[in-house]
Every structure is written in C-alpha cells, then in structure tokens.
TrEMBL record:
<feature type="binding site">
    <location>
        <position position="417"/>
    </location>
    <ligand>
        <name>Zn(2+)</name>
    </ligand>
</feature>
<keyword id="KW-0235">DNA replication</keyword>
<feature type="binding site">
    <location>
        <position position="320"/>
    </location>
    <ligand>
        <name>NAD(+)</name>
    </ligand>
</feature>
<dbReference type="InterPro" id="IPR012340">
    <property type="entry name" value="NA-bd_OB-fold"/>
</dbReference>
<dbReference type="InterPro" id="IPR004150">
    <property type="entry name" value="NAD_DNA_ligase_OB"/>
</dbReference>
<keyword id="KW-0436">Ligase</keyword>
<dbReference type="GO" id="GO:0005829">
    <property type="term" value="C:cytosol"/>
</dbReference>
<dbReference type="InterPro" id="IPR018239">
    <property type="entry name" value="DNA_ligase_AS"/>
</dbReference>
<dbReference type="Pfam" id="PF00533">
    <property type="entry name" value="BRCT"/>
</dbReference>
<dbReference type="GO" id="GO:0003911">
    <property type="term" value="F:DNA ligase (NAD+) activity"/>
</dbReference>
<keyword id="KW-0460">Magnesium</keyword>
<dbReference type="GO" id="GO:0006260">
    <property type="term" value="P:DNA replication"/>
</dbReference>
<feature type="binding site">
    <location>
        <position position="438"/>
    </location>
    <ligand>
        <name>Zn(2+)</name>
    </ligand>
</feature>
<protein>
    <recommendedName>
        <fullName>DNA ligase</fullName>
        <ecNumber>6.5.1.2</ecNumber>
    </recommendedName>
</protein>
<dbReference type="GO" id="GO:0046872">
    <property type="term" value="F:metal ion binding"/>
</dbReference>
<comment type="function">
    <text>DNA ligase that catalyzes the formation of phosphodiester linkages between 5'-phosphoryl and 3'-hydroxyl groups in double-stranded DNA using NAD as a coenzyme and as the energy source for the reaction. It is essential for DNA replication and repair of damaged DNA.</text>
</comment>
<dbReference type="InterPro" id="IPR010994">
    <property type="entry name" value="RuvA_2-like"/>
</dbReference>
Length: 685
C-alpha cells in the first residue's frame, strides 16, 4: 500500500486533474464544436470541481473553469470585446436545488414575499449578441469566454429570423442577446444531405448550429436552417428600459425581435416548478431542442440588488431536464430475429441513465447503419433517447476506440434456428431463410399458413396460435411448425383456455378440410419472402409439381413470368433449407395434398426469344429489372445473372456494373435501353 498523501496535496492534485479535463472538453465543445463527452458527463465533472472548491476555497484559482465562461476562441474570426460581459447560468438539477436557489434569493433580498420570476425555455443552441445602431444590425458576436467573442456578423446576417433593421421606435443603440439554434427537422435533413455527400455529420443540433455560425463562408451558414429567439439585452442607449424582464421581452417583440411564445411570468417556487413540469411535458413535441428552463428574477431593481458571482448572475438559474444523450460502451452486438425473419443488430451497452431511464440496449437498425456509423464492439458511443423513442446509437467517439475494438459481422446462420441468413443484392435487411422452422418466425408463419387465402384453416386465429406455441400439448412440446397443427387431437385442443369441446371439434374438422388444397395455395402458405398469391400461382402453373420446383435452379425459376432474380433466389434458398424441407415433408405425410397439374406450355405468339439468353446490368428508365426479366421470359428467352460466352445479349442500363466489362471482353452483343426496347418491339410487333 502506498503512503497516503496529505489531504490537501491530494485535493490539489485532484482539482488540477479536473481542471485539465474540463479545459480539454471546453476546447472540444466551444472551439471545435465536436464534444467527446456528453453534456451530462461534463456537468458531473464541473460539479465535482465545484464541490472540491466549496470544501476548501483555497483551492480556487482565478482561471478555474468554475470562475469563467466558455473558452477563448482561437479561430480565424475577428475578436469582439463585449461591453457588458456575456455570462453563463448556474444550473439546478433537482427540485431541492431550485428550492435552495429561491431561499438564497429571499434571504439576500430580505423579503418574506414570493419572488416573481420570468420563466423561459432554455434553448439548446449558442448565445449570440446582436448590436443595432440606429435600428440597423451592425455587429453579431459569439459569447466566447464571456469577455471576448468572435465576430460572426457575416453568417448571422443570413439567418432569416434575425432582422437586418428594427422597426420604428427602437432605441438609438441596442445590443440584444439571444440563442441561435437549429430546429430538429432541419438538423436531420442537413445531416442526411451531409451523409449522402460523404461529409462530416454533427452529433446534435447544438453543435450543428455552433459549427454553422462559426463558418468563415457566409454561404455555408445561409444553407443551414438556423433560427433564433431573443431573451435579453446588453448595452443600450437612447431609451428608458422597462422595469421588468417580462416587459422588456414584450418591447423587444415590438421592435421586430422574435421572442419565445412560451415565456411566462410565475410566482415563487410553486410557480417555477409548475412551469418546469409544463415544459418537460411539451419538450418532445417542440420543433427545437430545449435542455431545461431558465428562471430569472423579473424585477430589474431586485436583479441589481442581487448582482453577479464570477461566471453567472445570482438572479437566474437554469433548471435542467434529464439528459437526452449519454456516452457509454458497446459491450457486444447481438442479432435479433424479427417475426418476419429480419435480423436486427442490437448493441448491448454498459447500462447508462439517459432520457430518464436506464438504457442497456440500443438498436443499430441494420448492417448498412452499422457500417455507416462504423460501430465496433468496445467502442464508446453517444446514446440518445428523446421522448419515448427507442434508444439509438448516434455516433462513435473515435478518439476513444480501444485497439481491441472488433468489427461487427453479419452472422451467416440465424442465431435462433441455424438456417442460412440471406441478404439479397441491393437489399438493406438480412433475413433468416428458415421461415417454416425458425422459432422467431413461428407465430407469423402459422398465422400466414392458416390465413384464408393460404390453407384457409377456419377458426385458427392469432389468439389460439399464441396459446398453441406456448402450451406443451404434443408429447410435452408446443406446436413448432405448421406440420404440428395436423398432429393435434380434439382433447388436446379442448384443454386450451376459452376453447370448449365444440370449438375443438370444429377446429379439427377445419384442419382436416384444409388438407385438400391446391399447389398454388400451398406455395403461398409457405410464406416464402416476396411470394404473394400471384407469384405462387405462376410458380404452380409453370412447374406443375412441388418436386419440379424443388429441383429447379435459380435460373429455371427465373423463367416463370414476373419472377426476377431476387424472388427466384428467395424461392430457391427457402426450398434448399433442410429444416424447411423437413416441415414440407411432414405436411405431406400428414395428408396435405393437391391435384397434379400439367406444366404450362408457351402459347402462340410467345417463344420469339426462345434460345436466346440475356444478362441485365444497370438501371433501365422504362421498367424495373424484374419487369424486363418478365418480358424476356414471356417471350421465351432466358435471363441469367452472369455473363458467359453463351450469353446472347447484355442489356446495359444507366450505371452498368462489371457485367458490361465482361461482355466486352467476351465479345457478347451489348444492347442499350433503346436497342433492347426495339428488340422487344420487333418481336412483339
Ligand atoms: N460535452 C462537453 O464536452 C461540454 C463542454 C462544455 C460545455 N458543455 C455544456 O455546456 C454547458 C455549459 O455551457 P454554458 O456556459 O453555455 O451554460 P449553459 O448552456 O448551461 O447556460 C447558459 C447559456 O444558456 C443559453 N440560454 C438558452 N436559453 C436562454 C434563456 N432563455 N435565457 C438565458 N440564457 C439562455 C445561453 O446561451 C447562455 O449562454 C454545460 O452544462 C454542458 O451542458 C458541454
Ligand atoms: Zn431463424
């Protein structure tokens, strides 16, 4: 055990360490607009430092972050000195903090009366000072370190809500202060565009607003959806300011300056706390983000009496809402299989308190999203939970990536049933192909199987299906697949809740009747992805028997009218799954049957493209690839997915892939869209 240092030396070192960390995060937040920790984490660092300094005031240094506002900017923007300092606000995180604040004020004012407050939403943007001379906007500046900020007149002039000229009656000289922010929808649109163009995206609207305003190029700020609410003044000349803050805001509105419509005059602790609850309830429905509410003593005479401390006025406090964003670590990424077989990556997180609840899972939506955000196991990420929305991983903090971080891999087999996972070309979602067998898809598969247009099992609704898959009925096991339905006996069914003997007997009879079906209904009932009734009917007509379809290759299946490569591959993969085959086999053993059909022959007029094979690449403007395939096949041609010497034509649409290259190498004839349409036209005409 090392010797414990003297307490003051230890506290000194700790205060030093906290200051260094806070300075670093101030720099990232105020100068780079790219924070590395969440606001809540930052607030905790500040609270720790405040607590230390309160314990031993000798620890306070003049340059401690508790004594100063923000950070001094080091950008290329010109510096502006604030005539009246732009301060920060003290924070309250609990009702107790607010009660203590109000008590302190009444003690200082030596009053037993309730204080009147102006209560305002606390916009989450950045503070800007706007100087109007003779009613015209002459300068706009950021807060910076409170004493000196940056000249941002060029970008502020592009904000439509900031008047270039005030209305008549405005004082000769007026410095107004307000919050510039980005509405949530504008922020999302902007990030979506940035993403599409491979540009940097912002974590939240606040950083986006700050980043936009501090751009050197006013064109950039002009393109960003910025807005403003004005909430106070700095220096002014040539008028008598009102006696109350609330009245001041009304005057500012008369001058043409935008004031939050949510500002209210309230009385005492009860008044402010009621306002807090009202705004907390409104929070998620507002078009912009608020991170709390601000209470300001309404009467300016009282404000003057109360004065300031180092970095904030004594007469105001920001009452913060629970944070919407927190940082935490991704411990693992697991895949959940939905009822339609879709695999969703889910991040397992070190539990974190955010948006008022403890969150330990967050959806990653799909693999494209995982790649785009580059989320790896072991990463520190920003997690967001706003309102009742599902928690989401917003971004990875790359600076915190450990060398052991692991990339996320899409499993090749379903984590629930072990069937192959398929992800069709161009599709975002990966799916389990074990539709008939997979426990995750069981309920949906049974519901679909029994539906009227499938096997039409009268009386087998969702409620009974729920019971069947939860109750061990058959040899101690619940129903696992459609084949199990036909093993059920009337007494077993009658033992289910709300199921009399009569209904049980009816259901057994319905099951019996459903055994006699058609191949088309049966294929539809299997619930193969993208195989609706029409496709099922086309498959049945084309192949005539289930055996023929089971033997068919992807190319063979593509010969069916209206079946393109994607659907063909779904059908093929589904029928190749061992577990699916076993269920189909069991269904037939249980007596499910259909009349044999004769396979379809091409009718007159068709067959004009017989013997010719096509490969499609790129995008056609007049039809989809599947439609093009269908047209070719309807005329007797074949469509395959890869180019070989035997290929008759490669049809190349816009932005063709490597297949075009291959065609040229092999000397295969290439048709552009016009030539392809001409060929179809010639053949038909
Ligand atoms: N994540 C990080 O690394 C990091 C770093 C530094 C700061 N921060 C965040 O910034 C906060 C500190 O920043 P701050 O000093 O700007 O304090 P603040 O944001 O807590 O409060 C002061 C600011 O509130 C704004 N405001 C919004 N509505 C207002 C209204 N109606 N009336 C008056 N002011 C209003 C003004 O811009 C004012 O300057 C921290 O609590 C933290 O959340 C985060
Ligand atoms: Zn599965």
């Amino acid at each position: 055990m090392p010797f414990s240092k003297s307490p003051s030396a230890r506290m000194l070192a700790r205060a030093d360490e906290l200051r260094r960390r806070i300075e670093y995060h101030n720099y990232r937040y105020y100068v780079l607009d790219d924070p590395e920790i969440s606001d809540a984490q930052y607030d905790r660092l500040m609270q720790s430092l405040r607590a230390l300094e309160a314990e031993d005031p000798q620890l306070i240094t003049p340059d401690s972050p508790t004594q100063r506002v923000g950070a001094h900017p080091v950008g290329q923007l010109a510096e502006v000195t604030h005539q009246v300092p732009m301060l920060s606000l003290d924070n309250a995180f609990t009702e107790e903090d607010v009660i203590a604040f109000d008590r302190r004020l009444r003690e200082r004012l030596e009053t037993s009366e309730e204080i009147e407050y102006a209560a305002e939403p606390k916009l989450d943007g950045l503070a800007v000072s706007f100087l109007y001379e003779s009613g015209r906007l002459v300068q706009a500046a950021t807060r910076g370190d409170g004493m000196r900020g940056e000249d941002v007149t060029h970008s502020v002039r592009t904000i439509k809500a900031v008047p270039i000229a005030l209305r008549a009656g405005a004082p000769l000289r007026l410095e107004v202060r307000g919050e510039v922010f980005m509405p949530v929808q504008g922020f999302k649109d902007m990030n979506a565009r940035a993403l599409a163009q491979g540009e940097k995206i912002f974590v939240n609207p606040r950083n986006a607003a700050a980043g936009s305003i501090r751009q050197l190029d006013p064109q950039l700020a002009a393109a960003r959806p910025l807005d403003v609410f004005f909430y106070g003044i700095g220096q002014s000349e040539g008028w008598t300011p009102p006696a109350r803050h609330y009245e001041l805001l009304q005057r500012l509105r008369e001058f043409g300056l935008k004031i939050s419509p949510l500002v209210k005059q309230v009385r005492g602790v009860q008044g402010v706390l009621a306002y807090y609850r009202e705004m907390a309830a409104l929070r998620s429905s507002l078009a912009y983000e608020i991170d709390g509410v601000v209470y300001k003593v309404d009467c300016y005479a009282q404000q003057r009496e109360l004065g300031f401390v180092a970095r904030a006025p004594r007469w105001a406090i920001a009452h913060k809402f629970p944070a919407h964003e927190e940082n935490t670590v991704v411990r693992a990424v697991e895949f959940q299989v939905g009822r339609t077989g879709a695999l969703t990556p889910v991040a397992r997180l070190a539990p974190v308190f955010v948006g008022g609840v403890t969150v330990s899972n967050a959806t990653l939506h799909n693999m494209d999203e995982v790649r785009r955000k580059d989320v790896r196991i072991g990463d520190t990420v920003v997690v967001r939970r706003a309102g009742d929305v599902i928690p989401e991983v917003v971004k990875v903090i790359l600076e915190r990536r450990p060398s052991t971080a692991q990339e996320v891999a899409l499993p090749t087999i379903c984590p629930v049933c072990g069937s192959d996972v398929e992800r069709a070309e161009g599709e975002v979602i990966a799916r389990c192909s074990g539709g008939l067998y997979c426990a995750a898809q069981r309920k949906e598969a049974l519901r679909h199987f029994a539906a009227r247009r499938a096997l039409d099992i009268d009386g087998l609704g969702s409620k009974i299906i729920d019971q069947l898959i939860d109750t061990p009925l058959i040899d101690g096991a619940p129903v696992r697949s459609p084949a199990d339905l036909f093993r059920l006996t009337a007494p077993q069914l009658a033992s289910l809740e709300r199921m009399g003997e009569k209904s049980a007997a009816n259901l057994i009879a319905a099951l019996e009747r459903s055994k006699s079906t058609t191949l088309a209904r049966f294929l539809y009932a299997l619930g193969i992805r993208d195989v609706g009734e029409a496709t099922a009917a086309a498959l049945a007509e084309h192949f005539g028997s289930l055996e023929a379809l089971q033997r068919a290759s992807v190319e063979d299946i593509q010969e069916v009218p209206d079946v393109g490569p994607v659907v063909a591959s779904h059908v093929h993969t589904f029928l190749q799954q061992m577990h699916n085959r076993a269920v189909i086999e069991a269904l037939r053993e249980q007596g499910v049957h259909w009349p044999v059909q004769t396979p379809r022959r091409p009718s007159a007029g068709e067959g004009a493209l017989t013997g010719r094979s096509f490969v499609l690449t790129g995008t056609l403007t007049s039809m989809s690839r599947d439609q093009a395939s269908a047209r070719i096949v309807a005329l007797g041609g074949k469509v395959s997915s890869s180019v070989s010497k035997k290929t008759s034509y490669v049809v190349a649409g816009a932005e063709p892939g490597s297949k075009l290259q291959k065609a040229r190498e092999l000397g295969v004839e290439v048709l552009d869209e016009a030539a392809f349409l001409a060929l179809l036209g010639r053949v038909i005409g």
